[in-house]
Amino acid sequence: MVKRWIVNALAKAFVGGEATPDAIAERSAKALGKRWRWLRPLAVRYLQAMAADLHPREREAARFLRADEGFRKASWKHRRKLKIENWLYEPARMEPVAAAKSWELPRLETAGELANWLEVSVRELEWFADLKGLGRKKGEARLRHYSYRVLRKDAASVRLIEAPKRRLKAVQRRILSGILETIPVHDAAHGFRKGRSIQTFCAPHLGQRVVLKMDLRDFFPAISGARIQGLFRTMGYPEKVADLLGGLCTHCAPREIWNGVDWERQMLYGRRHLPQGAPTSPALANFCAYHVDCRLSGLADAVGARYTRYADDVVFSGDAAFERCAERFSIQAAAILSEEGFAVQHRKTRIMRRGVRQHLAGLVVNERLNVRRADFDELKAILTNCGRYGAASQNRLEHPEFRAHLQGRVAFVASVHVEKGRKLERLFEQIKWD
Fold it and tell me: Could you tell me if 60 and 78 are in contact, meaning their C-beta atoms sit under 8 angstroms apart?
């Protein structure tokens, strides 16, 4: 068996700098005090094994070394001479991937630098990140960083809103403005982006012969904490800093907030995931979906279709050629989504041809962008009754700011359809507010 301290020293050499066979062999030779002939072939095998991981961790390098047959044979053969001459303690530094070198990211190479940048102490930083998940296991409610609301849409659909409390939300907003908003996302993504909306999401699909709509299941909780930490590693942050940033942006929901919810949902939210309600989650979800956006865009281009995504809504549209292959295409798209770690709610998949109402995100896209007739008629009736019988008579859901609520709904219709918006605005102006 290979000695543990030799494995640990070589693991540091393997991940602590330039990832080329010669550079790894040079650092390993410095650690061992001798340039063994088997070091470079070992480095080549390591890089081949880690080809899919842009920034492996030390423990992953150590796991590879313990499993490598060539290293085990060499270490046994030279067991009397193999020893550590120099422990490599190089300071952590930013090492972004090639695509990330042009991003204007703050240089944060230690936990202390990250804490200063976030304007908290190191102890507060570790408490907010909670990498050991102590808040889920035994934390008191008043000491937890999130408030919870369980939404039951139906018997089979449960969604958990995890809203960060004031101090953690301020930290997350700093990460959003200082790091996440400087990173470009795929052009097909329209959700949670400045200058984009459901109108821009729907516009490419106007007047198409067929529209294919797919819905992703558990979009935010399906993105794991390890995936977020890996994303920060891709940006170039050292392992410790990436772990802390990932901890600040992900969460494990405590067991006791659930009441009568199935075990599968508890397991999903009980692991580290993106919390729906944190200001950083939408941007991080878009980044995690970048590769799937690239693949789905390429798949759509191959059949002459158009592709856009708004959070968990995935839409394709096209002409007669796409219509002929739409069902087979949906299977291929679902397979790609599954390979990238997302699951499709197949019962919500819709192939909408020109003869039926083609609706996306609450808007109709058959000929021109429009609101659904039922939604318009409902809002028109509410405004009419407010004018006749008073606004209080129509506030059945007891909105605390009912006037602002109605004004927002009217403004939304006006942004989609100007003529209909004007009709509603005239009705709104006739309401007498007490």
Answer: no
Q: Is the dihedral of CA 406, 409, 415, 419 positive or negative?
A: negative
CA pair distance 42, 26, nearest whole angstrom: 12
120 has which bridge partners? none
Shortest CA distance to 134 belongs to which of 233, 254, 226, 282? 254
Which DSSP helix (H) or strand (E) runs through 161? strand 157-164
Per-residue tokens: 206: 């106007």
What count of residues does the chain have?
434
Per-residue confidence (pLDDT) for residue 291, from 0 to 100:
93
Distance CA 338, CA 344 (A): 8
Q: Which residues contact 195 (CB under 8 A, 6 or more apart)?
A: none
For the record, the structure tokens of 318 come out as 């096209």
- Judged on CB neighbours under 10 Å (0-12, 13-18, 19+), 393 is exposed
Give the CA distances from residue 317 to residues 340, 348, 355, in Å, rounded to whole numbers and listed in that order.
22, 16, 14
Instruction: List Cα–Cα distances, 410 to 76, 398, 404, 428, 430, in angstroms.
Output: 77, 18, 10, 8, 14
What Cα–Cα distance (Å) separates residue 177 from each residue in 10, 95, 279?
Answer: 38, 21, 10
Q: Tell me how far apart the alpha carbons of residues 336 and 209 are, in angstroms, rounded to a whole number.
A: 24
- Whole-angstrom distance, CA of residue 316 vs CA of residue 296: 9
Tokens encoding 148? 């919870």
Which residue blocks in 250-372 are alpha helix, DSSP H?
Answer: 263-270, 281-288, 290-302, 320-324, 326-339
DSSP state of 107: -
pLDDT score of 390: 87
Torsion (CA) 364, 369, 371, 372 in degrees, nearest 10 = -20
Dig out the tokens for 29 from the structure: 């030779």
Burial class (CB in 10 A: 0-12, 13-18, 19+), 1: exposed
pTM (2 d.p.):
0.81
Distance CA 197, CA 51 (A): 37
Mean pLDDT per block of 10 residues along the chain (434 residues) reads 76 77 86 86 87 73 86 82 75 78 90 94 93 72 82 71 93 95 92 89 93 93 92 90 95 80 79 93 94 95 95 94 93 95 91 91 88 91 90 85 91 90 90 81
Burial of 75 (0-12, 13-18, 19+ CB in 10 A): buried
